[in-house]
Amino acid sequence: MASPEPPPPATPRTIASFLSSELGRRTLSGIALVVLALGTAWWGGLAFDLLWALAGALVCREWVALSPARDEPALALGGAAAVAVAAIILSVSGNLPSALTALAVGAAGLAALGRNRTSRLWALAGLLYAAVIGLVPVAARALPDVGLVVILWMFAVVWMTDIAAYFSGRTLGGPKLWPSVSPKKTWSGFFGGLAAGCLAGMTVVAVAQGYGVAQQVPLWLIGIASALASALGQLGDLAESALKRRAGVKDSGQIIPGHGGVMDRLDAFWAVALLVGMGLVVGAVVRASAL
Questions:
Q1: Mean pLDDT within 140-150
Q2: Which residues cross the membrane (predicted)?
Q3: Percent over 90 (pLDDT), the chain
Q4: Are 161 and 190 in contact (CB under 8 A)?
Q5: 3-state DSSP call for residue 216?
């Protein structure tokens, strides 16, 4: 029996077909997002801060578009502007109270613009949700000495959790995690992602400690924090899925080819950013009480 013919080499036509496919667009845009996120994180400064100010503004716009206030564009525009301005103020001045004041002014504007109580509450919730995306990465990156490590830890936990949850869920299958909200997610995917996110977070900190750019925090403690962040990130993903299901849409937007909206890419990161933001607040309170 003759041996099977080897597959033909890739041709420009097959490459072009891949690039024009959904998977191709998703792959290329995913690579571009990773390069952009890591590049600006490494560079720091205004480039990084403006990226997250823009991300926060877009998240706020998409949130309003998924809410009962979707037919009130002034709320989306006002909330997005408030988040962006607050993030830029924090970046330029490093003054958190001033940034929070800008958010408070924006919240007052949304309360005045909303047509009814429901739309006002949804818009205000979107403002708070987006503020986590717009402000926490900026504040974390500005931490002396360890800012880059914190950001890389966040990226590592979120990305490795997402990748491992996808592949372990597809490989192992099993009971669904929350079928009424996200029919494809499984418990095997959840625990696979949890293990990978925990390991990735510990690895980032261990490498940073090895190079002397991170405090010598016990790795078991980093493991606990990474596992908590991984679990919260997966819950953040589920929460956004529930919001989209409520709105009757598949994606939060169409701005990222193959990936949907900005919220679709940052739902897990949002939950981890919230955890980091709470840590920053606790740290600030402890330092203030020690003075």
A1: 94
A2: 31-60, 72-90, 96-114, 121-140, 146-167, 187-211, 268-290
A3: 75
A4: no
A5: coil
Gap between the terminal Cα atoms of the chain: 83
Angle, nearest 10°, between helix axes 219-247 and 45-66?
40
Amino acid at 162: D
Average pLDDT over residues 17-33: 73
Residue type, 210: G
The whole-angstrom separation of Cα 107 and Cα 115 is 14
Say how many CA atoms lie within 13 Å of 140 toward its Cβ.
Answer: 25
86 contacts: CB under 8 Å, gap ≥ 6: 99, 100, 102, 103, 106, 131, 134, 135
Q: Does residue 29 sit in helix, strand or coil?
A: helix
Tell me which residue of 85, 56, 88, 115 sits closest to 273, measured CA to CA. Answer: 56
Q: CA nearest 101: which of 147, 125, 135, 126?
A: 135
Of 268, 249, 269, 251, nearest in space to 260 by CA: 251
**DSSP conformation class of 178:** E
